[in-house]
Each structure stands twice: as structure tokens, then as C-alpha cells.
Amino acid sequence: MPVGTQGTVKAMSQEELKEMGFEIILGNTYHLYLRPGPELIKSVGGLHKFINWGGSILTDSGGFQVFSLEHIRKIGEDGVVFRSYVDGSYHEFTPERVMEIQSALGSDIVMAFDECAPYPCTKEYAVDAMVRTHEWAKRSLDARDPNQAFFGIVQGSVYEDLRAQSAQFISSMDTDGIAIGGVSVGEGKELMMNAVDWSVPHLPEYKARYLMGVGTPEDLLDAVVRGIDMFDCVLPTRLGRNGSLYTTYGRINIKNNKYITDFGPVDPECDCWACANYSAAYLRHLYKCDEILASRLATYHNLYFYARLMQGIRQAIEQGRLLEFRKEFLAKYRKHRASVHDEEARQDNINAEKRSYAGCRPQRPED
Amino acid sequence: MPVGTQGTVKAMSQEELKEMGFEIILGNTYHLYLRPGPELIKSVGGLHKFINWGGSILTDSGGFQVFSLEHIRKIGEDGVVFRSYVDGSYHEFTPERVMEIQSALGSDIVMAFDECAPYPCTKEYAVDAMVRTHEWAKRSLDARDPNQAFFGIVQGSVYEDLRAQSAQFISSMDTDGIAIGGVSVGEGKELMMNAVDWSVPHLPEYKARYLMGVGTPEDLLDAVVRGIDMFDCVLPTRLGRNGSLYTTYGRINIKNNKYITDFGPVDPECDCWACANYSAAYLRHLYKCDEILASRLATYHNLYFYARLMQGIRQAIEQGRLLEFRKEFLAKYRKHRASVHDEEARQDNINAEKRSYAGCRPQRPED
């Protein structure tokens, strides 16, 4: 799911998202609640109509944003009091209020209100946050709009027993799907995959599984292999705006001098609109000049790369060759990294990995 | 001609420009010379190939930018020494060098190197600048690439005799077209139209006439009536990015509160992509959230408005009813302004007029 924080996937039009083959996008309840507000969106018939998107929409619960913002807040059993980053005004999110907002937004899939514990956090805090998340999940389910699909969220931080306990609890509820939350908060790839491994065995086979805020192309493959079905991540859009582009042979920084005279496409194996019409050299020039078309081309290309990857994954699953597909994909994708002659790209990849886990969830409206 | 200062019409793709019906865009020699440089563009076969634009390109001579920048410079008979706004390095533009650069860019129409006198300026200065412009026009013509169409530029500031003298001089040269320059530099609408009126009688009937850096929809109509054929202006793109949108009933500021709940198109009489798919309320939301899609929708809409206006003008000329067309257009377009109930929009229109003449030429890479 491309991330459309404020009712728009940054730099893209809804027509382009459709053209790329996306059938569902994510909207952020926290941001849309503050601007333009659920009443306005409800008055025009919901978020689909407001933004003119014919596909599906999943809205998160705002839990991640509320808990990750530095603004003064109060966490109680009933809910969370927080300050708007827009105007400093005070607001309260409770499970019931969050369900009401998501109902007004009219999204197809709504998420339970949860407490996303930070990383690192003590086991004591993780237990508290998990228990509160479970209570809030029950209240969210009770307050849900029956016309919307409802997903519960597994928490439990980096603790094996808590993840198992939370997965069992959420699985026992009458939900339409289950998300694994509290990942991609700076814990690093190994701990993130642990959280998946500790949760998955307790999830029912027949419900959609959604790993929130993940991830890199490699993460998606590793998580799908572990049984995950759905993802959302700002990486393709945010990195695109910063000049970092995914290619068949690894992620590149288009601002590098090597692209000054590269008049071929960014990725010779890509058939997206950007690669079909514009060169790497032109894209680099647009970045150097801070032009809007740079963000447009790069975002389109990166989202297309993700769409194609997921299409490839689905096809490989149908053909019973997921592990081969993953191996083939990674053999090419890691080529940059393996090359000793391409130290610059390698270092860029390493730095990006480090950043990825801290930064691939939308906090501020930048994404 | 939409303005593509740095090899891109801000926020637009080349496919969109074509879709709107534009057949020619403007590129700025000054900016393209500094970044990415004429050698690079030449090496790939010219600006058309570098930016993937199948239509025509006119490049200005850089004279306007060089003379309007505040950076240290030296004006001599041979040319102008100026400092790059990018890195502070020194560069010299002479008529021969500017022709060489435009040849490397491979544009379809190139402009003579001229001195654009500021406003206000003394008659003494205006004479000096005009004489230098004439000398440079001859040298530009001598140095031109014969594969490109060449336009001379009339100067003369706000002085009737100088405009007549300059128009006669430039008309005597073997050019493919003639531009009226030195307008839209803060002199206001009346003096600008005077410059046109004083120049036009001396121009040959059979050559294209281009009024540089103009203007508002009303300016275009007023200038076409006076015999002008071609225009370039950043107003539709720059104002679009700032939330100011042209409509059949006048220019509006989409950020105004009245658009919060306006779920109709920005202009009910417009059939552009933006108006067909997105509401004024959504566009306002995108502006308030500083989203890229706001600039995209508004720029597309404004450029489409200009394209439609010019199509209407061409059709009216063919039908021999230009003055009626102008009257009909303005009767609707000035409706906002005439309404005493719409003081906000009126004031906005007035302020915009004031700004227009100082700001509708590209100086910095912002446009």
C-alpha cells in the first residue's frame, strides 16, 4: 500500500496510482483528523470521494503518530491526550473516537487503536502497553462501523512471550484481519523479523496478515516468506523525493556524479513511465535544480518498482516458486552491494539500511 | 509558451504539456548554461533530447537574467561579466558566446543577446542600452547558427522615440521574427502597452512578433489586439504554485476559507484534467498541507486556461471576431472584480495586478 498520509500519495496523482496497478492505499487517521477533519470528509461522502480514489483505502488508527510525537501528551486507560502539531490545540483519542473518525473517513479497512511502544523499552513498559492495546482492541471492535473491515494489532515489543501472548489474544477476536505493529521503530531488521516469527505461529491461517510500516524490498520478501500478506511503507515515496531510486541492481543515489552523463534510463530493466521517457542524467539535473518533476519521476519509478516486486511475489506464490523468486531477485538486487568497485553505492546502501528502520513510518506531514 | 526555465515547466511533465496542446516551450539560456551546461546538453543531441520534448523550443538570450541579477557584474561593449548564483563563479556572456550556447542547446528559435534596461531608467541610460542592444543584435545575427530561427529584440524603455528607433533598426535586420523586450519589468500596464503601440507600426507585417515576459489573460488579449503573436510568462505556473487559479470568472485564491466546502471543480466551465477529477475543497486541502499534488493540479489548470485562451483567440481571429471574443471573455473574467460582494477576490485581483509586472519573468531558478 502506497502511503497517502494526508489524502495524497506524495507527488502522485490518483490516476497514476491506478495506472501503476495499485488497488489500495493507506491514509493516516491522525493527519486527516487534524486536516481537513473527519466532518468535512464525511460531508462529501468519505475519503474516496474527497480525494477521488476508486480503489480501496486502509486507515491506520493514529496510534503510531500519537505515541511517537514529542508533543505533550497524557496516556490514560481511557485514551491519549495530545497536542496538534498544526496549531498546538489539545485533542483526545480514545478507541471509540478513533473508530468514529475512521467511520467518518469511510475507509474500507480500519485499524484498532493501539499503543505502539517505542524501541528500546523495558519489559514492564511493554507489558503495560500490550495490556492497554488489548483492552483498546476490544473497545475498538465494539465501536467499529460494521460496514468496514476491522483489523486488530499485535504488540509486545521485542519480547518473545509478549508477542506470542498478544498474537493469541488478537487472534481470539472477531476481526477481519490482523496486523503486526510496534515494528519498524528503530529496532533493526533482526528484531523486526523476530517479532514476525514470534507472532505468526499464533495467527489464524485464513485472515489477512499485515506488517505495519515495513519495509525495504528485502524486508518484503523476508516477511512474505514468513507468511505476511500486506505492507505499507513510506520508503519508496520518501526515498524517491530524496533522490534515492530502486533498481533491479540495487538502490542508487541519482545525485551521484556518475549519473551526470548517464543518458539511459535509471533502470534499464524497468518499463515504467519515468524510465521509458526520461534519462538518469535528466533526473539528476532535476534534482540538482530542486525541480518538482524530480520528485514525480522518482516517486513514480520507486512505487512502480514496489508494485512490480509484489506482482512478482504473488505470481511466484501461485507458481509455487517463492523461494526461487526471492533468490533470483536478491542475486540481482545485491549486485551493487557486492561490487568492490562500487564502494559509494555500497556505503549508501548500508547507511540507508540503518536509517530505514527508524524512519519508514509517517510521523510529520512530510510523510 | 509555458516557461521551462531549467529544462522543465515547473510541476509538469512533457507528456502533460503535449496533452494540453502546447507546441512550443521556452527555455532559459542563463539557467541552462549554469546547470547542466551547454556541453552536456549538446553531447546528447540538444535540449529536446535531454528533456524528451517533441515540440519546439525557444531559448531566450540570458540578457534579462544577467541584467536583473544583483550579483557583481561588469557591462562592457563586448559583453557582460556576471557571477553565478549557484556557486559564485565568474562568467562572461557576449553576443557570440550566447549564440554558441543556444546553438549547443539546439533550440528552434534563438534570441539575440540584448540589454534589458531596468525600470525606471533615465533616457540617457535607455539610449546607451538601446545602442548596445543594436550592436549586439548585429553581432548575434552574424554569429547565429543558420539551422535555428533568429529573433531580434526591440528595446528603448518607456521612451516613444527610442522604441520607434529601435523597432526600425531591428526591423531592418534579416531576422525570422521580432521580439519586444524591456517590458514587464515593473513599468505597469499602461507603459507596457505604450511600448507595444510605439513599436508595432515599425515592424514588418510578415514576421512573428513576440512580447517577452507577458502577461495576464487581459494583457494577452490587449497585446494580440495590437498585433502581437507570441508570449511567454511564468504567471500561470508561478501563481498556480502559490494557490492562485485562473477561472472563467476571474482569478481566485484557493486558500480562501470559502473553498473549504466547495466540492465542485475550481472552474465549472473548465474541462481540464484537474477540474474533471478533483474538487476545489481537495485542492485547498492539498495547499494547506503543502502537498506536491497541489502544485501539479493548479499548474495544469492554469496552463490549460492559457492554452484555451490562446486557442480561442486564434479561432476568433480566423472568424474575424477578435474584438467580440475579447469583450465576451472579459465580461465573464471581470465578474469577480465587479461584484461588491466579493471584496476579498477583488482585492486579491488588484494586488496580483500590482505584483504581476514586477514578477512575471524568471530571475531565480524558482522560475
What does this structure look like?
The structure is a homodimer of 367-residue chains. The first copy, chain A, has 367 residues and is α/β, with parallel strands linked by helices. Chain A is built from 17 helices and twelve strands. Chain A has helices spanning 14-19, 29-34, 38-43, 47-51, 63-68, 95-105, 123-143, 160-171, 189-199, 217-225, 235-241, 273-277, 280-288, 292-318, 322-333, 335-338, 343-359, and strands at 24-27, 56-59, 73-75, 80-83, 90-93, 109-111, 149-154, 177-180, 208-211, 230-231, 244-247, 250-253. In chain A, the strands form three sheets. In chain A, strands 1-2-6-7-8-9-10 form a seven-stranded parallel β-sheet. Chain A has a three-stranded antiparallel β-sheet with strand order 3-4-5. The radius of gyration of chain A is 20 Å and the shape is globular. The two termini of chain A are 14 Å apart. In chain A, 51% of the residues are buried.
